[in-house]
Amino acid sequence: MLATILVSGLVSLAVSLVLARMMAKEMVKMLGEIEATEKARQEDLLNISVDAISRMKNGGSA
User: I need a labelling partner for 25 at 20 to 30 A (CA). Which of 7, 15, 48, 62 fits?
Assistant: First the structure.
């Protein structure tokens, strides 16, 4: 009976560890997507700023 309880506990622990690992991988993937989106947004803002500065230097002409 004790062996059954121990095996059951070990199986439960193993399943929990596998699920935790899967969740960690998903979180890393999501963080990578967030970082990529943020980088693209920053690049867009930089391009807008450079364009605005160029227009100001050219006297406001498009």
Answer: 7
